[in-house]
Amino acid sequence: MVVENLLEFNVNNSSQDSSVIDLQSTDFELFQLPAKAQIDLVVLSARWRELQSATHPDRFASMGQSAVRIAMQYSARINEAYQRLKVAQTRFAYLCEINGVPIQAESNTSMPLEFLNQQMIWREALEDSNSVQDLEVLQEEVTALKVKLESDCLNSIDFENDYKSASQIVRSMMFVNRFQGDIDKKIDRLEQD
User: pTM for the full model?
Assistant: First the structure.
């Protein structure tokens, strides 16, 4: 308990206000951000640096291994939250989850028919493409959809409070992000040949 109090003291003295790290808090509470889809990434990064500095295990080395382990737990929790919030797709999924609508990507694979048709067309185009230029055109099309999906999801969460629609959009974003990775891999293979 002494270490937790010292961690709280370090956090209090390193941040602008008197925040305390609660390992049970939401990621947004941890970083003192509103639970919104659109967040200020500069503020997120600055707060992450403050929290990491305040809880870095090296600061507690003189207190023994127990203190270092507790500091490592705090540090790991901070890093986990930061990684989740800094990426739009994972931030959106997290917002859906904390609002009672988990993504369930493994068990809920339902997608709109139009999106499924688009997936098939893209997969065929990827398989048939033998030039980097063709793949770059496909990449631009996929990127445009990704931007639209992010905008739609942000709107569903921040303005409509429609987490059910947002969860469907997140599942679509997951496909688009995976597919972009597949395009990148094929471009790399073609450029190496």
Answer: 0.86
| Three-point CA angle 129, 134, 137, nearest 5° | 135
* Digit-coded pLDDT (tens) for 132-154: 999 999 999 999 999 999 999 99
| CATH level 2 (architecture), domain 113-192 | Up-down Bundle (1.20)
Distance (Å, whole) CA 179 – CA 173: 10
| 35 closest CA partner among 92, 105, 103, 74 | 92
CATH T-level fold of 2-86: Helix Hairpins (1.10.287)
Question: What pLDDT digit, counting tens, does each position of 165-181 carry?
Answer: 999 999 999 999 999 99
Residue pair 132/186 in contact by the 8 Å Cβ criterion: no
